[in-house]
Amino acid sequence: MAKDGMFNSIERRNLAVGKSWDESKKMWHIAGPAILAGVCQFSIGFVTVAFVGHLGNTELAAVSVVQNVIEGFVFGFMLGMGSALETLCGQAVGAGQFNMLGIYLQRSWIITTVTALILIPFYVFTSPILKFLRQGKEISELSGYYARWVIPQLFAYAINFPIQKFLQSQGKVWVMTIISMVVLGFHALMNWVAVVKLGYGLLGAAIVGDISWGLLILAQTIYVVSGYFPDAWTGFSLLAFQNLSGFVKLSLASAIMLCLEMWYFTAIIILVGCLKNPEIAVDAMSICMNLQIWALMVALGFNASVSVRVSNELGAGNPKAAKFSVGVAVCTSALFGILFTIAVLVTKDVFPKLFTEKPIVVRETSKLAYFLAATILASSIQPVLHGVAVGAGWQSMVAIINVVCYYVFGLPIGAVLGYRFNLGVKGIWTGMLVGCLLQTVVLFIVMVKANWQKEALQAEERIRTWGGNAESLTELITVRR
């Protein structure tokens, strides 16, 4: 009897290990290339900062402020508007409605392009905006000059994010990854030519960034429309203009959720810019933030993977499989977070030198290494929980959680510690950590208590609401062909 019980226990354990391994393979099929693509695309800005940092403290601060304040604001909104596809495309794939993916993509392009037009003034009026936010005059003027030259990248975001979600939902990420790697290599080479050899400085860096993003978008668009997706892409259609209002609502919910997340880090940079010696403080903080976001790209790969897996399984009516996917993704991403945390602590006196040769900036950046390590560890879990939220369509609820954790607790605590208690950057960063940790805990509780059977039923209803009748759509596409 005891032997039978032991045998059953071993059998159950082996079954669980096998199930975890199968889920891990499905996750890595999307997460692996998504991580590489995300790192490469983020590294376009990373490389720009690395080259500009050797021009001077003011140039480094100017580009860092544009990337973290203006582009951080815009990037979050554009990514959010495009992230509605993550829910809809993923659930459509799970339900077998591949014919809707191309229509969803075109609807998203319409919405994100209009959004880009609305956001142009933030680039045009960067200087007065930064001055209003009490940033230094010299940094504000130079930031405004740089921002006007990178406006084309705003429209690149409008095309890029919907394509990403379209490809990820179908597990077709490797071509996007290869394109991103080639463009990154081109970007690094051209920055060396324009900034270092030809001496075009800030202007050269901005133009090279525009060209690199343009090539990235052109290559990805050609891939999508060239016949590689016969079921999902059947050409441009007037169906894309139908039911835009419902699509906009979900897009706005996604945008608000992500914006509240990314604007939080923007607000941190603004608070740091109001300290004494803002150039040094902003430089040190920006170097750490760049590294933190680079590490975040790995977690965002798992974010993309778990979002696809959850939305696919909910769309297919498999709530237990969706819940199991979440557990595997959280554990894997947390392991990588631990590895990155150790790497930062070991190299705390070395990594600042990649960005600057100024001893004072290197020294101030090294002092923040422990805060950076703690943030990276927290950020390894948080994006995965966000991926669950997007896959399940919880965007509105997460937006409320973000407001409370970040803006009711995190920012006020950071401001009090940084200014009232004269802790400077360390105090502000402590507040940021409090907000991040609180949000992670709340999202984890929400995920554990979720009724996954109910979420599967809501996914079915969502497909009907935003997709329309699948049979009628198929008939329309067949007639158009």
Describe this structure in words.
Its main location: membrane. The chain crosses the membrane at residues 30-53, 109-133, 145-167, 173-195, 202-230, 250-275, 287-306, 326-347, 368-385, 397-421, 428-448. GO terms for molecular function: antiporter activity; xenobiotic transmembrane transporter activity. Mean pLDDT is 81; it is low at 468-481. This protein has helices spanning 2-52, 57-82, 84-94, 101-124, 126-132, 137-149, 151-169, 174-197, 201-225, 244-273, 278-315, 319-346, 359-367, 369-379, 382-392, 395-420, 424-449, 452-467, 470-480. With 481 residues, the protein is mostly helical. It is globular and about 60 Å long. It is built from 19 helices and no strands. The longest helix is centred in the first third of the chain and has 51 residues, at 2-52. 54% of the residues are buried. The N and C termini lie far apart (66 Å).
